[in-house]
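Write out the 3D structure for:
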Amino acid sequence: MPEIAPPSAPRTRSGFLGRVHDWLPDRVDLRVRIAAWVSLILEVAIVGTGGAVRLTDSGLGCEWPLCTPDSLFPTAAQSYHSLIEFGNRGLSFFVGLAAIAVIVLVSRIRAERRDLWIMSWIIFAGVLVQAVVGGILVIFQLHPNMVAFHYLVSLVLVAVSAAFVVRMGQPRGARERAVPKGVAILVHITSFVLALTVIFGVLTTGAGPHSGDPAVTLRNGFDATILEHVHSWPAYALFALTLALLVIALANSLTAIRNAVILLLAIELVQIAVGLYQARNALPPLAVGVHMVLAAILVAACTSLGRRLKRPAPTPAAVGAEDAGTAGAASATARG
């Protein structure tokens, strides 16, 4: 539902700053939408490039903060691992630029759309945190627990970016539940089970063979074989819960969440297939990388579902008009 632009405020600045202020969107327009989608896509993409760094044993391909003591960029004396690691760092720069662009574009409407303003800053702060954590990872030789934290923060940023994308398409103002309370509770339970699935998946990877560098042998100490089975339990529970949500949504014509549930279920089916393949084929790096990216997409889809549980609440004026219309119709019927 497109937003109606509020009346344009008179310019309070002159010159260049005044022109910039007038250029900034006074509502959620195409520029905001494009920037938000680019930010979300880049947040998912950097999960993939980060996975590539780890799965190609390129985690220590560069030093930090420079790639070598004397160069910001990889040198001819280094191997291809430095190119992969530097490529990931380069993409993080564009992730940060996209986050800044979103902040700038929603700055003029920050009073009316405080929700978007806060989420845009959370994303930017998360990007900064990730840059620091990435440096710490190199300094501490890819400690598995720090690697796990790095990945989980990435998924949080994907979730916030997805929430921004959904929320920007919804009008501001009070909201009410769009589905029955029991369905909303089931969606929240599904989200919790997804979080458990991701956490156990991260622990499983941290116990597995892909440390990020051949010289790094430290793992998190858990038995990877046991964790593979433990990881599968909430994964199958997640699939069952989503299937139940789909049946309920179709049976009760819950159009507010139907498409989001279908999308979530489709991603889960692909994710389960990839998970079974990698578990039965000694964890091939490409399959593990796809599994990581699909987890990020799954988080985005589940976030989108959660943000669709509410709809704009009717305004007092609309309620009054509806009541007046109902009363008028009743009066006409009585006279007739």
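The chain has ten helices and two strands.
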